[in-house]
Design a protein that fits this description.
Helix content: 25-40%
Organism: Candidatus Eisenbergiella merdipullorum
Strand content: 5-15%
Cofactor: pyridoxal 5'-phosphate
Modified residues (N6-(pyridoxal phosphate)lysine): 208
Number of strands: 12
Radius of gyration: 22 Å
Number of helices: 17
Pfam family, one: Cys_Met_Meta_PP
Strand order of the largest sheet: 1-7-6-5-4-2-3
Distance between the termini: 62 Å
GO biological process, one term: transsulfuration
Shape: globular
Order of helices and strands: HHHEHEHEHEHEHEEHHHHHEHEHEEHEH
Length: 427
């Protein structure tokens, strides 16, 4: 049996596999539609009797090649791309939830995800219970209800940088017969594969490290194929009972371990349409080809910056899982021994006003609503990405009012530190 490729090779070689005489580089299939010779051929596609392409809102060859690469990096059985990371998390949950259902949600997830699940989906009749990821197993289990359909958490929380105990959450989810969905955006599959530790579904905002250049918004969902939906047909009727919109197809019967992604593609993408453009997927693939090179450098630079900040007299605290003083250091060593991410959070002794002043004085680091690309950037979440939260919710999310989110780029680490030094010296 052929040995599977390592991640470095997958980044370069997976996805697009050209045949004789075809382009070596992944083509951009910039077309809304695809031609067929007979009506019967087209009809079989609409009945899900054959694989193929007929309308880009559902599937596109460029998109699928990139999804295949991400799937292979994560070690899944099937994957799909979405137009944003937010759409990926929405589809991942909504694919198995409907009005009257319930979600267990980690309190420290990204603010946009928190608002999506706790507020917007509440209007759709889907409720949620919020759990502290640091709670013990028994406390987390108390959040589950009879109508709970999934658990959603992040490998490394944005921006709290809480490292998830994946095995603990997977054990709790499986004890209550539901899948664990993990957003693996910050760690990337280079540093962590949640499936290895019991997660069932992984999501990504490909906008971040996967793209790596702040060019394209996008998302991805990967299914491990390990959760057996057929054991709980009453809990997951969408997958285990006939879909009358496709002539009574039962996804688990017809598509086996690929049932979850097939349903999300043929049903949710058909009706909601958050498909990425082929051009964006092409650019995402360019980013993926260097993911294995960029992520280690982000982590190396971030480690140096975190150590510098930890020793600075004007810095009140530093949160980075790579520091031995960090409360999540041991968990990070377990799940991500080769590094965590390039994002640091820290606070200044001058509090919130000092944080805002520092950002205005930085020269190399730019104030942008983004993280995880080649350029160093900075943000004050309480004023920006998390400003929709009240003080209590901010506390639950691990976002202190003075928290500065600092995304360390690929520049020379000494230059990044020098920029921080000159800014700190003027506060």
């Amino acid at each position: 049996m052929k040995k599977p490729y390592e991640k470095e090779t997958i980044c370069i070689q997976s996805g697009w596999k050209p045949k004789n005489g075809e382009p070596r580089v992944l083509p951009i299939y910039q077309s809304t539609t695809f031609k067929y010779e007979t009506s019967e051929q087209m009809g079989r596609l609409f009945d899900l009797e054959e694989e193929g392409y007929f309308y880009t809102r559902l599937q596109n060859p460029t998109n699928d090649c990139v999804a295949e690469k991400i799937c292979e990096l994560e070690g899944g059985v099937a994957a799909m791309l979405t137009s944003s990371g937010q759409a990926a998390n929405y589809y991942a949950v909504f694919n198995i939830c409907e009005a009257g259902d319930h979600v267990v949600l980690s309190s420290t997830v990204y603010g946009g995800t928190f608002n999506l699940i706790a507020n917007t989906m509440k209007k759709m009749g889907i409720s949620c219970s919020i759990v502290d990821p640091d709670d013990d197993y028994d406390t987390i289990c108390k959040a589950f209800r009879e109508n709970t359909k999934c658990v959603l958490a992040e490998t490394i929380a944005n921006p709290a940088l809480v490292v998830l105990d994946i095995e603990k959450f997977a054990k709790a989810a499986h004890a209550h017969h539901v899948p664990l969905i993990v957003d693996n955006t910050f760690a990337t599959p280079i540093n962590c594969n949640p499936f290895r530790w019991g997660a069932d579904i992984v999501t990504h905002s490909t906008t971040k490290y996967m793209d790596g250049h702040a060019m394209c918004v996008g998302g991805a969902i990967v299914d491990s194929g390990n959760f057996d939906w057929t054991l709980y047909p009453d809990k997951f009727p969408g997958l285990c009972t006939p879909d009358e919109t496709y002539h009574g197809i039962v996804y688990t019967e017809k598509f086996g371990r690929k049932a979850y992604i097939t349903k999300a593609t043929s049903q949710l993408m058909r009706d909601l349409g958050s498909i990425p453009s082929p051009m964006n997927s092409f650019l995402l693939n360019v980013g993926l080809e260097t993911l294995h090179l960029r992520v280690p450098r982000h982590c190396e630079n971030a480690q140096k910056v975190a150590e510098y900040l930890e020793d600075h007299e004007k810095v009140a605290w530093v949160n980075y899982p790579g520091l031995k003083s960090n409360k999540y250091y041991e968990l990070a060593q377990k799940y991500m021994p080769n590094g965590t991410c390039g994002v640091i959070s820290f606070g200044l002794k001058g509090g919130r006003s000092a944080a805002e002043s520092l950002m205005d004085k930085l020269e190399l680091a730019a104030i942008v609503t983004h993280v995880a690309d080649a350029r160093t950037c900075v943000l004050h979440p309480a004023s920006h990405t998390h400003r929709q939260m009240n003080d209590e919710q901010l506390k639950e999310a691990g976002v202190n009012p003075d928290l500065i989110r600092f995304s360390v780029g690929l520049e020379n680490a000494d230059d990044i530190i020098a920029d921080l030094e000159q800014a700190l010296s003027r506060i």
